[in-house]
Design brief:
Blueprint: E1 2-5, H1 9-14, H2 16-28, E2 32-34, H3 44-48, H4 56-66, E3 71-74, H5 77-86, H6 92-99, E4 102-104, H7 105-112, E5 125-129, H8 132-137, H9 153-158, E6 165-167, H10 182-185, H11 187-203, E7 208-211, H12 214-226, E8 232-235, H13 236-240
Parallel strand pairs: 1-2, 1-3, 3-4, 5-6, 5-7, 7-8
Helix pairs in contact: 11-12
Length: 244
Amino acid sequence: MNVGLFIPCYIDQFYPQVAIATLKLLEKVGCTVNYPLQQTCCGQPMANSGYEHLAGGCNDNFVRNFADCDYIVSPSGSCTLHIKHHLHATNETAATAIRSRIYELTEFLTDVVQVKTLEAAFPYRVGLHQSCHGQRGLGLAQMSELMAPPFSKPGQLLGMVDGLELVQLDRRDECCGFGGTFCVTEEAVSAKMGKDRVADHLRHGVHYITGVDVSCLMHMEGILKRANSTVQVRHIAEILTATL
């Protein structure tokens, strides 16, 4: 499979190890990966702030970079959702095709590659944060308010990791409060929501918190560090490529 790797700007700047882990994971499951060097922000921050009409340059650049890819994969649920639902460009035919070919990493591994085993080991208690964009926007996991069979694509992959104990939380699909620009415009509410989310993990004695969105993990990581907690955060790609 020929895959175009889309790395959101905040991962490129602050968490490059997540990008590297994603590349290793995709190659490990047999993908041929191309990283377009001219890629940049997908335009989500502008769109979330009410300035989507100013994101035309980002949109056209995204189309130029990824139009020829069979699949586009990203280790970010929120950025993937933005492209999947909101990408429009001067070349609208190409933009429409891209919207149907972009996948969040765990979605791609479970639905397209259909991974059944992983050679990974991570002998720790892990709490899974199922972020809002991934769960409710991309359908990566069942929403607890629905009377329907539960499922979790990230959870399915974590279940393939040797030694990993996936901890059951009290409120498994509660928002962490990051919300993109929400954490700036509603700082106090965002911080309180993040503290409540972190507390659920801490009550259950986790060693690590993981998820599919580095933005959510970054928010919770800040709360953990301010509390001098020994609990760490890891993007799911880092855990799925971990070895003893």
